[in-house]
Amino acid sequence: MDIAEFRRRGREMVDFVADYYENIEKRPVFPDVEPGYLRSLIPSEAPVDPETYEDIMKDVERVIMPGAASPACTELETVMLDWLGKMLQLPECFLAGTDGQGGGVIQGTASEATLMSLLAARCKTVRRVQASNSQLLEGEIFSKMMAYTSEEAHSSVERAAQIAGVMIRKVPTDDTYAVRGEMLKKMVEMDKAAGLIPFYFCATLGTTPSCAFDHITELGPICNDENMWMHVDAAYAGSAFVCPEFRHLLNGIEKSFFLLVNRVKNRADLIGAFKVDPLYLKHENQESGLVIYKHWQIPLGRRFRSLKMWFVFRLYGHKGLQSHIRHHVTLAKEFESLVRADKRFEICAEVILGLVCFRLKGEDVLSENLLKKINQKREIHLVPCQLSGRFVLRFAVCSRTTESHHIQKAWQHITQLTFEVLQVSNY
Amino acid sequence: MDIAEFRRRGREMVDFVADYYENIEKRPVFPDVEPGYLRSLIPSEAPVDPETYEDIMKDVERVIMPGAASPACTELETVMLDWLGKMLQLPECFLAGTDGQGGGVIQGTASEATLMSLLAARCKTVRRVQASNSQLLEGEIFSKMMAYTSEEAHSSVERAAQIAGVMIRKVPTDDTYAVRGEMLKKMVEMDKAAGLIPFYFCATLGTTPSCAFDHITELGPICNDENMWMHVDAAYAGSAFVCPEFRHLLNGIEKSFFLLVNRVKNRADLIGAFKVDPLYLKHENQESGLVIYKHWQIPLGRRFRSLKMWFVFRLYGHKGLQSHIRHHVTLAKEFESLVRADKRFEICAEVILGLVCFRLKGEDVLSENLLKKINQKREIHLVPCQLSGRFVLRFAVCSRTTESHHIQKAWQHITQLTFEVLQVSNY
Q1: By the CB < 8 Å criterion, does B419 face chain A?
Q2: I need a labelling partner for A390 at 20 to 30 A (CA). Which of A126, A147, B278, B392 fits?
């Protein structure tokens, strides 16, 4: 959507909202639909090609308004996350379908998704341990429970463990910054020998520092053998799996319990961890077997974020989403080539998606000074990371409007500042 | 703002956004402001009288745009929550000010606010216990920790305890559905005698079922004596304290650590519970002593919700907010009089703010049938509760547009359906 169309559609939307308020008293205060009403009103998969804005707005009146905010909010979300699951070619067990045991949920943030999966795993483990030793108190079990994640994992994993009150260990990575099966296995065995209870592993597909991919085909079977819950954090890389050429990076997912973009294999595991049902939250359809998201998350309230997904999936189509991803990857590769052609720089990690990790060869201080200059100029903005103990710059392509000329301009700008940095350091 | 103005302002806002995108490349990618820049650009208190929309939009360009999303988002939030704190006449220790130790934060939901305070209290308690017995593991301490809340408290308090992995006890209430000091004291003493560690009490000002007010003037000193953190959940009633005639309901707040609407007395208690600082989240001003919200909440990301507060506070003014609250209370009292004048009904709890709890005298089944009929007709919508073991209907005034004629019409509707219910039950 270009800016002129945005203005037009935006004004239409303001009128849509105003008309709604103007006529709100003519509408019933409560919807008159049966649980599950929405699924049959829309296709079971995202469109391949883009649809028009008019078509979608017509469907808002036909599909959403009869179910108002609730249950339309829940039901559209369930179907949208099935659409997404199918685009990602997830195994059937992760879909809600009409009678599946899995399903997706939009968590407020990636941090909350990781926390939710950790809490569900904690609950499952406590029950399992108490089944064989009913004398043990919950807290005593907590003090022996050990979670694991990559040393390259996002900080939210460590925070989730702090919140849940369990220990967490960082698993070392190989020279591509990925966790391999044997590294996890070794740690788990040591901890078991010390009387601890390994129960959770958070794998990352697309780490924050360098977009590395943990080897989940190796890690999944180990987790299964050890009664551990494997959670897969694909908060960044997940959307790339709509392209078949990247889908192999997700192989092994069938062994995980929870995929962050955001999906669970067995709903009951989540619900079991949190169900509290006071009278003011009871309703007549609560035993319908349909998805009820209040047990899948920390807050009770929810935003209607699936409405945005519905618009995006239909305005882009599966093909449009693929070209969006491919465009970003192409731009990142373009930047990578520019870096590689300059002998003063080195690439620090394989460029798989939209992230390029690079640095000036030599002492860290050079790259640190370069970063300082770049961010002071405020033409582009970079966030650093550490890889193998060295200071690394991260060039991330993530804006919807980035084009080749931006990449070229950014590189020109960086090389100009590099000149200044190296000149000073030569004195 | 009426609907005609909403249309006009809405279109202007769409153009504002479109213009922003159209010119985004002319703007620096990173703001050039010093930490704390925003506080001096705006008044230190909310205006008494309403301001115009034009004035506010002018300030968006002057105050917000130079600080863009960040740090403007954080800094406006700190100041807006000070504005709110002053309107609520909170003790100085709850304000951020320029060098205070307290301050407010907008949590995603009330559930998250309660969870955050519970986690902070848990962390503080573990440190205290370990200081006198460094051998004890965290999990061993958890298994002895006891939280308390009213039997009338919101379900999110019980969930917070589940998530944090600590026990929770429901404190019985008096005949006004409020917790008194002696009831808590008795429980705490029993638990201490049994070797448990009481550490947290969640008081409620305005319970969900009946809008009851726990006696925090009695409860606060007990919590202080017992080294317990008192959290005050005023998620519903909190906004009423902008009116001096309701402010006395908040007396005793100086003894609490955390007030949900949403405020903490000592930031360090929160930050201590969660600080994880990877390189990609470090920045040069992180030791500035200013508010950094990422440690105050579960998610890392934040929405710019203080912008809405800024608009609301200024468009209404302190006086406008007061009339809004008073209008709702007046309407609830109007409904109460209608119920009291009808001998078939009884009022089940004192009407203090916008909630009226009532029921048909006699067997529960009558009120249950009435509720069923009301919600089937879909003209108005009521949510029930249980008080003293009896089924009770809750009439809540909460829409911005509710007027006296809605109350009259709703009561007419209810009495019509009551006629039908009682007719059937007479057969």
Answers
A1: no
A2: A147
